[in-house]
Amino acid sequence: MNEKQIQYNHKEIEKKWQGVWDEKGVYKTADQKAGAENEYILVEFPYPSGDLHVGHWYAFAITDIYAKYRRMLGKNVLFPVGFDAFGLPAENAAIKRGLNPREWTFSNIEFMKTQMKRMGASFDWEHLVVTCSPEYYKWTQWLFLKFLENNLAYQSETNVNWCPSCKTVLANEQVSGGKCERCGTEVIQKKMNQWQLGITKYADRLIDDLDNLDWPHAIKEAQKNWIGRSEGSLISFKVAFEKDHTADSEKNNTSEISFEVFTTRADTLFGVSYVVLAPESDLVQSLLEKVSNRAKVEAYISQTSKKTEMDRIADNKDKTGVRLEGVFAINPANNEQVPVFISDYVLAGYGTGAVMAVPAHDERDFAFAKKFNLNIKTVISIFATGYSEEELQKKYSEYSGHEKPYVREFGVLLNSGQFNNLSTEVAREKITEFVGGKITKNYRLRDWLVSRQRYWGCPIPVIHCAKCGAVAVPESELPVVLPEISDFLPREDGKSPLAKATDWLNVKCPKCGGDAERETDTLDTFIDSSWYYLRYTDPKNENEFAAKEKQDKWLPVNFYSGGSEHTTMHLLFARFFHKALFDLGLVKSAEPFTTRLNRGLILGPDGNKMSKSKGNVINPDEIVERLGADTVRGYLSFIGPYNEPGNYPWDLNGVVGIRRFIEKMCRIQITAETSSEVRKELSKTIKKVTEDYQKLKFNTALAQLMIFTNLAEKNSISKEDYQTYLKLVFPIFPHVAEELWNQSSGEGLIVEAKWPENIEIDSSNDKQILTIHINGKMRGTIEVEPNITEAQVQELAFSDPNIAKWLEGKTIKKTIYVKGKLFSVVAEA
Ligand code: ANZ
Ligand code: ZN
């Protein structure tokens, strides 16, 4: 046979086969295939920034390996792609560079489509979803109206980041170090009426249903922490005012005012030495006229309003605050009067916005008490029960000396009247009951603020009428299309630039026909991405967001690959959205994604996150041009196990190594028969590669393919076995595999081939390795035919000089032969 020409011209090969696959429509999703199970493989869709980066390749091309493998197994796969196309960058391009956000976005999409097509991935482009197209956002609006009808969407006054000099609302990422990113002015918090979605109603289900999901433990834990459910008590404190000095009684006035605190540690109630209220709370406002240091208090309130929540909860030891002079709170457990403070470490939006402070057992309260010289009273001891109170006191003070608070949740009570010696756990309930409190749950999770004062987003389909209030735009008038405007800066009062499009803004009320105005806020883009996977199943439907029968075919998503940055927000929002739709009978499953995978991150060659400013960005197009898409696919699959998130620096030598490997693949020659060694390795390779693909360990699958390739290149392999090998290679290296399949006159296209079956190898004729022991010590090995006799073994062993030397001058006493394993000799001098 002739030396096979090694001519790996990746450009020609990749272009050719992409054209053929496209033309034959091999990746068109079949709604139903006889006898095939449907499988929905999903990757988080990208923002159309205008350039595909290596991260996109890692997301799509590597998940595509899995999609291809599942297809070859006979699954009917939906593997769609789309663009999460609303959002700030387009608007910034409009403001800074005078571009039209729609044109900018769509031209980016067109460009990225051509980039993506070079991956050789099995996307079905007919299922393309673009969230900024009116065909899509019509249904985003329709779904929003369903939420509105069912009291899951509502308006309320909420704080926003406000730049007083730009007169604009800022997103969190536009605030750096408390200053406006554009002009450097200090950002303040401003109250605005904004739309919210009632995700907190789903808090318990969002936690509890995690148990049934086949998701990595770390993702579940992160979601639980984000929701932050804690069990505690609501305890009511009465307010008392200091009597003015002219009055006769020494005692303070108890007022009618009371407030509740939320505490997870009702067991520490006897240790309360003061109370802290959130400065911005309504309660503080109502107490203002009774405080004797009002100016100071008001100054602190205004100072707090400049801080973001992030700054306030930051774990700094330096606590600030102001005492409400003349105001006291009465501890319901022992009727003690304690001072009342405001401090920014207490947030109005969590719990009740009021905290009973127990400095002996809480870090923040401790720091605060130290600073303001407040009483620190120990009420919990770590020492076990059985001690008298004095003993406990003594032991405790020896132990702690109040250098730091004892914050652990277990222990026994002291200094707590009739509750002394109870365990903290029991005391929590008993004390709550004793003071008439309530056991409740509290959540970190807030309702989802979805209003954005921006142009480039989905318009909220609501009309405001002075008479009728907020009225839904009638379904027949959807979509509310974004008007074309040219001035993208927000209106002076902070309203979205849409408020300047007066033709669009002024409408008649759908209810009463009177003059009315459209809502000018647009929706958070996380809403767009909370249901795109539903639309993928039926992207062109003009009458429904997705027909029931299409949903039935594909949902829930079997496999969802995404970035770890979406562990909480996106994944939680989408789960909430889906559950809400489930309750409304619009989807059938309570969860959208049965399996979730967070993939790793590709770093620059310097080991840092790729960024333009660091100059360490790898441009995949360049590498595809120079070395080929198959090389990039191979490199990214080899970099580490796909199912475990890790950080992988880009390594050009590694890339070149993959290219060389592909060239080696091309050098394998077909012969009449397969050598037994190659055949055996092929059997092993099929097993290993199948297992590894299934587990998303493409790196070890490829390592095995490399071992096999090395062997096959130097040995003989039949056409049939060679083609089996190509099938194993195909998911990672589709273009070159198709080319070699074609050159070896494979039947049809490899892309339509079936996954190979295991090959059973008859190993009964294989040579065996025997270990030789002399007097209990291993002294060497010999290779023998399987049907060898004991006498032949002995002859072979004794003729091996390395073994014979141990027997010199000795007499053989005994030999033992274990077939296929061992030949053992006992010899004496
Ligand atoms: C008394 C106490 C004693 C507390 C003690 C803790 C330890 P989690 O677990 O996160 O729910 N707290 C309540 N509302 C707050 C607010 N709006 N801003 C800041 N802190 C607030 O935390 C609940 C605990 O955080 C509550 O229990 C309360 O302090 C504080 F040894 O009450 B604790
Ligand atoms: Zn009206």
Describe the SSE topology.
Blueprint: H1 10-24, E1 38-43, H2 54-72, E2 76-78, E3 82-83, H3 88-97, H4 101-117, E4 129-130, H5 134-149, E5 153-163, E6 168-170, E7 175-176, E8 179-180, E9 188-197, H6 203-208, H7 217-227, E10 229-241, E11 253-263, E12 274-277, H8 282-287, H9 294-305, H10 309-313, E13 322-330, E14 337-342, E15 354-357, H11 363-372, E16 380-381, H12 389-400, E17 412-413, H13 424-434, E18 438-443, E19 448-449, E20 451-452, E21 458-459, E22 462-465, E23 469-472, H14 502-505, E24 506-508, E25 515-518, E26 522-523, H15 525-528, H16 532-535, H17 548-554, E27 559-563, H18 569-583, E28 596-599, E29 601-603, H19 620-627, H20 629-638, E30 647-649, H21 652-667, H22 676-694, H23 698-714, H24 719-729, H25 734-743, E31 768-774, E32 777-784, H26 790-798, H27 801-804, E33 811-818, E34 822-828
The chain binds ligand ANZ and zinc ion.
Residues 465, 467-468, 509, 511-512, 514, 516 line the site of zinc ion (ZN).
